């Protein structure tokens, strides 16, 4: 077998990219981009119409986008350009060497992005926490992952960072997730009535998912004075409403405590099952 000569990229383009081939390649790229735009629009319409399957439908787009671009590049390379095998191997060696030396971070992020797409530790629409940031996954690309926080900020993480950090997923592809609401009362408060009204406050909320259990836990604590911490654990039926559920439960608890003449609660941290205690919401 003859030794392969590394063909410079400019010579490769001059030999194998005529005007017609270049125009056909650009047309394939434009059609692929337009098709992906229509695909995303159609999936968004389906996700809005079939809300119970929203996360499943939205999660199809990143994988389909990757497959479409791989197919487009393969068609351009093997059908339109169709270089000899030796030339293709030589150009691949040149491109691989250039990318390996000058774009190590980019390659690392792309490899991590492919792993994320196929391992699927989270999907579009999941509520995840990466470091100090918590929010809904709005995009999974080959280079980065984007989440939207409850302050309506979009935070972008390189895929390599997401792949090497611990990622907490609050709902794991489900529309419901656990919301934890904590409040404190003086240690001498009657526990039974407070637990009952706390349970009713969660059960009566229009945002709670009654298909899963509601729990009220108590714990004695000392912070300058003795107090009892009440923890309400309930599931919200739509992950985007988790803060509204927590607010509604607290409002109902405060109203019930006032009606029964009990002490006003000292409100504690509101978290979801995917957040780490002490981390910002």
UniProtKB/TrEMBL annotation:
The chain crosses the membrane at residues 22-43, 55-81. It comes from Syntrophotalea acetylenivorans. Its main location: membrane. This is Mechanosensitive ion channel MscS domain-containing protein. Pfam families: MS_channel_2nd. Residues 105-171 form the Mechanosensitive ion channel MscS domain. It is found in: Membrane. GO terms for cellular component: membrane. One of its GO terms (molecular function) is mechanosensitive monoatomic ion channel activity. Keywords: Membrane, Transmembrane, Transmembrane helix. It comes from the Bacteria. Signal peptide: none annotated.
